[in-house]
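To: structure subgroup
Subject: Chain for Friday's discussion

All,

I'm putting the inputs and outputs inline so they're searchable in the archive.
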Amino acid sequence: MLDWILRLLKGALIGTGFILPGVSGGALAAVFGLYERIISFIAHITKDFIKNVLFFIPVGIGALLGMFLLARPLSFFLENYEVQVIWGFIGCIAGTLPSMWREAGKKGREKKHYIILAFTAVLGYCLLYAAENFWHSRLPLNFITWIFAGALIALGVLVPGLSSSNFLVYFDMYKPMVDAFKTADISVLLPVFLGGAACLFSLSAFIDMLFKKAYAGLFHFVVGIVLASTVMIIPLNYNYLSAGTLVCAAALLAGALLGFWMSHLEEKYKT
């Protein structure tokens, strides 16, 4: 039961990662130890189908809870306490990094893997910074563009560290999407689901093949992307001389403890 609840909680946090700008659902899946298994399941969906479905039921329920039930309170807290919420997410990711590091090296670690990690972290940061500061475009809101939005969200699952919500913000699609989650607007949710499913099923086999052929290299790449995306979401435009800094520190510590606890339980109950 504890393991089931843990997967439910992880799913809820991953779900919020799909709708929280600056946070990657795929990165959260990676730091919570679910990324590789999700990709393997989608890539080989008929293999151990019942076992995998039972395993992912609480994850799926949690993800839906994260996206739908938390959309409204997240909007409220992001509007009123955005910096504190983001520091909580940063802490949660930081608390799971030791577990990620052990996972990346479980099949060996060579000098080239350190290079891959460092190169990916630097290049990833530069690309994310450029995207955030220099790329902004508007798209019309229709069935086709919502399919595109769903594909972007799926890419956030397949590529840890890629914050799909950031790109939706750039295209002025983020707020309408969150509003659609709040109201369960099927005219938006249906094409988003179709686009996400198409992207997941078309690319997951390729990602799974990469893991089998170059596990250490790809996982160090993932760690580098997670580091880059985490640094990118650090709030800089905030008066850290104010009393709110104490709340930021408390949120960071609470998030770190939560992330460490969840990764510890993941190692204990990993199946």
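Points worth raising on Friday:
Residues 2-269 form one domain.
The mean pLDDT is 82.

D.
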